[in-house]
Write a structure and sequence with these properties.
The chain has one domain. It is an all-alpha fold and 155 residues long. Helix 3 runs antiparallel to helix 4. The longest helix has 32 residues. Helices cover 85% and strands 0% of the residues.
């Protein structure tokens, strides 16, 4: 079923346009990189604040960094679909693509758990020590998602 979905995506108008329009692919690629910069940059600034200062005043950083990261993710999803559609059957079975999806899922799950567990305390100015574990996992997951995304071209 997964392979059928990849084939359908590749043969769709999105796949056709991505393969035959240099501008579409180029702009999607540029926006995907911009989205990655916003996502990982925003998350990294917040996570480093939590790691370095145990979340002291992390809310002040997070109120800017988290929406920036969310905007980056919102930009990455549609552009990622366009880039995938160009060669979905080949890219969709690439081990690095699987790794990228796993790290993205880990990053998103970690963000959700962090905010469910510490969201109310975040505005209080100081987070408990175990919040640093979540920040470390987040930083690692998003950096590894970037690495896996770059490795798709080489595997």
């Amino acid at each position: 079923m997964y392979l059928d979905l990849l084939a359908a995506l590749e043969s769709s108008w999105v796949g056709h346009t991505a393969r035959h329009s240099a501008w579409t692919f180029t702009i999607a690629n540029l926006l995907h990189v911009l989205g990655a910069s916003l996502l990982v940059g925003g998350i990294a600034v917040f996570d480093l604040k939590v790691l370095a200062e145990r979340g002291h005043n992390a809310w002040q950083v997070g109120r800017y960094a988290i929406p920036l990261a969310a905007a980056g993710l919102a930009l990455q999803i549609p552009t990622g679909v366009i880039l995938l559609a160009a060669e979905a059957r080949a890219l969709g079975v690439n081990p690095a693509f699987y790794a990228k999806l796993i790290f993205i899922a880990l990053g998103i799950a970690n963000v959700a758990l962090f905010h469910a567990r510490f969201g109310a305390r975040l505005r209080g100015g100081l987070l408990p020590p175990d919040a640093r574990v979540y920040a470390g996992i987040s930083l690692a997951a998003w950096i590894l998602a970037l690495l896996a995304g770059r490795m798709i071209a080489y595997l």
